[in-house]
Structure formats: structure tokens, C-alpha cells
Amino acid sequence: VEAEEKVFGTNHAEVAASLMGLWSIPFKILSSVAYHHNPTGTMRKPPTSAMALYIADGFENAKSKNSFGQKVDENIIEDWGLTDQFKGWAEEFTN
To answer: Burial of 49 by CB count in 10 Å (0-12 exposed, 13-18 middle, 19+ buried)?
Structure first.
């Protein structure tokens, strides 16, 4: 994401959200895509779909051991009040 912003002045999440807006995709889906790297970018508690995509993306990046992929910020999870559930999801995902 940082490299995309440095080279192109934007990132894949913003480009995808822009296209989705042109295609009249519902806001809940569009916002999930737009904020999947920065789910608290415009709101303290984003839509559930944005939170789910952020967490799934972080799990997938951790699983692939992709050094460039964003990991889940546990401070964000705590702010959302999902710490207990997150631990269970993490266990399920790694098994």
C-alpha cells in the first residue's frame, strides 16, 4: 500500500472503491473495500463488513507470511471490543 501510494499517489483499495462507486455498488461493500487497510480511517467503529474484511486480510497475510502484507493491529481489535472473539478466530484460522 505504501509503495502504491508512493509510486501512483493512490492505492488499490481507493482505486477499487472508486470503480465500485461508478458501478453503484452499495456503500457498505464499497466502504469495506476502501478501508480494508485502514478501517478506522473515517470512523471509530466502521461497518461490520469493513471490520470483517480487515481481519480476514490480516489473517491471510499472516498465513502467507507475506512480509509486505498488513497484519491485524490488536489495538484496533481492542477498540472495537472484539478481543475475546478475535483470539478464537485466530486459533481457528491457524488450525
So the answer is: middle
Cell 486459533 locates to 91
The C-alpha atoms of residue 75 and residue 5 are separated, in whole angstroms, by 24
Mean predicted confidence (pLDDT) in 75-84: 88
pTM recorded for the entire structure: 0.71
Q: How far apart are CA 17 and CA 35, in angstroms?
A: 9
Q: Is 66 exposed, middle or buried (0-12, 13-18, 19+ CB in 10 A)?
A: exposed
Among 45, 82, 75, residue whose Cα is nearest residue 31: 45
Spatial CA neighbour of 33 closest among 47, 90, 66, 74: 47
